């Protein structure tokens, strides 16, 4: 795997940009057309930077058709999709190809603290690398749960992404005041110790909360105080065995859904 010099010089701020899917609507009728928006950035529920179309892979509705008609509209990348014809929950997914970025030591440490990557901070400290630039390969895995007509168990089926959120209750049977249990899987297994952030957009107001860390079973409870659009976010970062091209590799996960 090789990366261009332009990738090395990419703007540091973009490293902290989350990637997530926004469906319009989240609750279509059977066979309806869907607008799939790729939002990139930290200005939920809006997009700050469009995503390069050639970096997107596995762009589909699980068990259904691939997305099509990709284009850039302003700061968002957009595609069309067809909702399933059968009633029930469905999952839309996408991932990005791995990319490389290098940050100077202070910016890398700030990024690690912001994302709750305490184990990486401690490893760098114990191994005398706190003052070393962060050389990182990253990829992002976005997932959205919708529903056609009536709910089903489709929300709970793993999509086979390297890292993904799996709701343990149906988001479309949750109401404000409830709690949504979710599990994070990494490479097909529960992922403990990951910091999870939950964002909500409701009636023009946006809230963002660091909920905590996943337990030994990769599970965490997400308080749902409001209706509206919800986004969950987490990152797994590993030390690479081969550090020729990069020292670290990160895997970003997002999940969006709508609460009535």
Uncertain runs = 1-15
Radius of gyration, in Å, reads: 18 Å
- Overall domain count: 1
Report the mean per-residue pLDDT as an integer.
Answer: 93
Q: Number of helix segments?
A: 3
**Biggest sheet overview:** 8 strands, mixed
Q: SSE order in H/E notation? A: HEEEEEEEHHEEEEEEEEE
SS-derived structural category? mainly beta
Shape: globular
Q: Percent helix among the residues? A: under 10%
| Strand portion | over 45%
Distance between the termini: 44 Å
Q: How many DSSP E strands?
A: 16
Notes on the protein architecture:
With 260 residues, the protein is mainly beta. It is built from three helices and 16 strands. The strands form three sheets. Strands 3, 6, 7, 8, 12, 13, 15 and 16 form an eight-stranded mixed sheet that branches. The chain has a four-stranded antiparallel sheet with strand order 1-2-5-4, with no helix packed on it. Strands 9, 10, 11 and 14 form a four-stranded antiparallel sheet that branches. It is globular. 38% of the residues are buried.
Describe this structure in a few short sentences:
This protein has one domain (5-254).
From the structure above, extract its key features.
9% helix, mainly beta, 3 helices, disordered N terminus
């Amino acid at each position: 795997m090789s990366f261009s010099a332009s990738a090395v010089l990419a703007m540091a701020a973009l490293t902290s940009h989350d990637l997530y899917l926004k469906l319009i609507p989240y609750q279509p009728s059977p066979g309806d057309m869907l607008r799939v928006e790729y939002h990139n950035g930290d200005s939920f529920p809006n997009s700050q930077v469009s995503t390069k179309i050639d970096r997107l892979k596995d762009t589909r509705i699980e068990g259904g058709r691939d997305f099509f008609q990709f284009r850039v509209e302003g700061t968002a990348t957009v595609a069309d999709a067809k909702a399933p014809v059968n009633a029930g929950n469905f999952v839309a997914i996408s991932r990005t190809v791995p990319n490389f970025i290098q940050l100077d030591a202070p910016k890398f440490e700030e990024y690690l603290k912001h994302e709750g990557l305490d184990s990486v901070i401690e490893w760098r400290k114990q191994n005398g690398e706190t003052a070393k630039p962060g050389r990182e390969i990253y990829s992002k895995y976005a997932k959205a749960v919708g529903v056609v007509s009536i709910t089903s168990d489709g929300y709970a089926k793993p999509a086979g992404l390297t890292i993904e959120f799996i709701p343990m209750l149906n988001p479309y049977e949750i109401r404000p005041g409830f709690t949504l249990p979710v599990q994070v899987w990494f490479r097909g297994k529960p992922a403990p110790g990951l910091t999870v952030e939950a964002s909500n957009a409701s009636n023009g107001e946006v809230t963002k909360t660091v909920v905590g860390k996943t337990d030994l079973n990769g599970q965490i409870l997400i308080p749902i105080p409001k209706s509206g659009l919800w986004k969950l976010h987490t990152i797994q970062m590993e030390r690479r065995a081969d550090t020729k091209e990069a020292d670290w590799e990160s895997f970003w996960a997002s999940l969006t859904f709508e609460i009535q």
